[in-house]
Write a structure and sequence with these properties.
2 copies of one chain form a homodimer. By secondary structure, chain A is of the alpha/beta class. Chain A folds into 2 domains: 4-175, Rossmann fold (3-Layer(aba) Sandwich), CATH 3.40.50; 178-362, Up-down Bundle (Dehydroquinate synthase-like, alpha domain), CATH 1.20.1090.10. Chain A is built from 13 helices and 11 strands. Chain A has helices spanning 27-32, 46-62, 81-93, 108-120, 134-140, 178-195, 197-211, 215-235, 250-260, 267-286, 290-303, 317-325, 354-362, and strands at 4-8, 15-20, 39-45, 66-72, 101-106, 127-131, 145-150, 153-160, 165-169, 337-342, 345-350. The first copy, chain A, has a 7-stranded mixed beta sheet with strand order 1-2-9-6-5-3-4, sandwiched between helices. In chain A, helix 6 packs parallel to helix 10 (267-286) and helix 9 packs across helix 12. Chain A is globular and about 60 Å long. Chain A starts with a strand and ends with a helix. At the A-B interface, helix 3, helix 4, strand 7 and strand 8 of A face helix 3, helix 4, strand 7 and strand 8 of B.
């Protein structure tokens, strides 16, 4: 078994990310030494529960864990206070104590909501992330951000709370709908753009193999993304500084998701378009070479990501700008942007004149 | 102005508790140097808003703070997910950013719910506690515990989250209904019982003056309680050990509150009865002198606290025991108790045989 390991170094709250294949049906083994009790709850959405719950529970039972399970309807629309409240009620019914644990089996929505439940139930209990999408394996399951959405904005309520273990089984990516895989690749490419030019080159070179789900390539990709995210997170756990560069493309992406109604664009699709708009802004404000914007755009097209917005789906530029002003990274009503000098180097906290922002967004509407 | 100060030493999250009279109408001054932005929301319940909102807002406005206000119906019944959700929606409407602050103006319910909102809105924003009851000044506003109740139990959802400042204006205690004042004294006496025999003696000696709301006595009492709580909290912020002794009487008290329906007994009344039952258990298990149980019981009676349970209000001993098994301090279904060796010294994590527990509870039912 090729088992890769990335340690997220957060002193007393350090934890490991394990990356490899066929990890899910050994989850009991991996949990054995790191949990303070044998009692827990496995939480998935309607998709992941149908696909993987059985395997998880069998492996956990083999190691004498007593684990009940709970699920909710798949989709970003479930990431709200109502579902969180139902989950709390279930945890109370199951009489979990402070040493009991939660397992989040799913993509970003499951990880975010279960992470927040773990952060707040009894003021914090252990939890394990088992990300089942590429997006979750390379991004949302690592770094300890948990959240739910409010009607007025994405991720407005949440906590910084670290899991005890992240288990990335790349085999799970093979059941992923193609659109979900592609969506995850938007975040993968983002790491290259903001932090690692060599990794960007590697992705360009091997994109066919990645899209064909070659196991060793997937393992390499997930591991490199986790390493990059772990190092940024360790340096700045609660996003007071450097960690903000991970939000490249995201201020615009969140606005696209809010304005189009969650679900029209996947998160990754919105990030792809947001990244290109951020590149465009960077051309004017940071001297980012237009040829690199073009290179990224071509790469997104090759992957199958959208590179422009459909005008009927985003109402107006005004509504996008308004949504950005409501973003939680906003300070005193002025959104901050992550911009790039060249592929591999980014800067956070940049102010962008509203006129330039509007002009750049307009270029991407068709 | 006699301004007393207690520092809660939590490294980078250290903060001050200010204790004195006429502090509320100077709140703007005290906030001036410790908040990262001028924008905030003042939250109170229907009682505290009517009494104190105006004074607060005037003082804040003088220092150029831009503060809007929000309120909810007074009472423990409001400490739930529905009210928290409405508060989140208000914060989103007000477009608070990560540097904006909340002010909790009220007793334990307000402090708990506003603290949890501050801990989770945008994954954590600054907040200030302005406790308006004796219970909140000596206990709930200090130490960073925040929470809401679930239908199945008190404080089941919450976070450890420290305020930036606690402002204890003892003048506010003068508008407090007598029952609320008496309720707070149950927690005050608790500090003496578990940590400080001299303080217990002091309270016995000066109880008439305290009940007559003599300002200098109130200041001394609040300050000593805050010092004791601050030292325990600093030693063990997230209650993995010593901090648990503050729960003296509370496992039983919470069960009383759950079983009788929140509101029948005030928290302090339940704590008084819980403390006496814990003394009774301590007699058998720790050699606690029966004369000291009697001394405490007499003191509670003098203060005006109940010293027994009304049988019609608590259904049965079974229901109390069941509620304790659902308490969040329970580990593996076995409740843990804080017991006392003598007045001034306590021990946490004690197991109590169920038969003894039942017998001791029965002694207090009339």
């Amino acid at each position: 078994m090729n088992l890769e390991k990335v340690c997220v170094d957060l002193k007393t709250r350090s934890y490991n990310i394990l990356i490899g294949q066929n990890l899910l049906n050994q989850i009991g083994l991996f949990c054995r030494s790191i949990l303070p009790s044998q009692k827990g709850v496995l939480i998935g959405d309607s998709n992941t529960t149908a696909l993987y719950k059985e395997d998880c529970l069998i492996s956990l039972l083999k190691e004498n864990f007593h684990v009940s399970s709970w699920q909710f309807q798949a989709g970003e629309k479930s990431k709200n206070l109502t579902i969180l409240g139902r989950l709390y009620d279930f945890l109370a019914e199951e009489k979990l104590d402070r040493k009991s644990f939660l397992i989040a089996l799913g993509g970003g929505v499951v990880g975010d909501i279960v992470g927040l439940a773990a952060a707040t139930y009894l003021r914090g209990i252990p939890f394990i992330q088992v990300p089942t999408t590429l997006l979750a394996q390379v991004d949302s399951s690592v770094g300890g951000k948990t959240a739910i959405d409010l009607p007025s904005g994405k991720n407005l309520v949440g906590a910084f709370y670290q899991p005890n273990l992240v288990l990335c089984d790349v085999n799970l990516l093979k059941t992923l709908p193609r659109r979900e895989l592609i969506c995850g690749l938007a975040e993968v490419v983002k790491y290259g753009i903001i932090l690692d030019r060599d990794f960007f080159d590697f992705l360009e070179t091997h994109i066919e193999g990645i899209l064909a789900l070659e196991t060793s390539l997937l393992t390499t990709v997930v591991k490199r993304c986790c390493e990059l995210k772990a190092s940024v997170t360790a340096a700045d756990e609660t996003e007071t500084g450097k960690r903000a560069i991970l939000n490249f493309g995201h201020t615009i992406a969140h606005a696209i998701e809010v304005v189009s109604g969650y679900g029209k664009y996947t998160h990754g699709e919105a990030v792809a378009i947001g990244s290109l708009i951020a590149c465009k802004l960077s051309e004017t404000l940071m001297g980012f070479p237009p040829a690199e914007t073009e290179r990224i755009e071509k790469f997104f097209i090759k992957i199958g990501l959208p590179v422009s917005l459909v005008s009927t789906e985003i109402r107006s530029v005004d509504s996008l700008v308004l949504a950005m002003q409501n973003d939680k990274k906003t300070l005193a009503g002025i959104p901050r942007f992550v911009l790039v000098q060249h592929i591999g180097e980014a800067k956070f906290g940049c102010q962008v004149p509203e006129s330039l922002l509007r002009k750049s967004i307009e270029e991407f509407i068709r």
